[in-house]
Design brief:
It contains four helices and five strands, in the order H-H-H-E-E-E-E-E-H. It is an alpha+beta fold.
Amino acid sequence: MGTVGSPRHTLWVVLGVNGTEGALLLLVLVVPLLVGLALLVLVLRQQRRLRERIAHLEAQRPIGQGDLAALRADIAQALRHVAVVRYDAFSDMGGRLSFSAAVVDDEGDGLVISSIHARGESRTYAKGVVRGAADTTLTPEEQQALAAARTGRDDA
């Protein structure tokens, strides 16, 4: 216990404790306070880190309608509409090893690739497509693939 008149002595007198009881009481009161302060410091540090992370993420995201319009224009030009039609090019061949594949963007610009499989060889052709129309005549299978790519339906 502290000397008479010291703050520690006054606390013991007010609480009616002395010696070991006073030390235990002090421990019971101070330890939770220290643990609470330590937790508060940890929470505040984590909060600061989260705020910094949010600020970083906000700086990385596109802002404004101009950026959104640019992204939409880029996506529209992406060759993202695809359809494949498999078929037997010759009546004596089975297994539907021949195919026509159409790959176009939102405007219908792209290409049609066809591969004709025969017993002794396989031939591949590519035809350009602009606004849904080919630069050369399309076979019925190529037309079917192009229509399916443009509409997103297999039965086009």
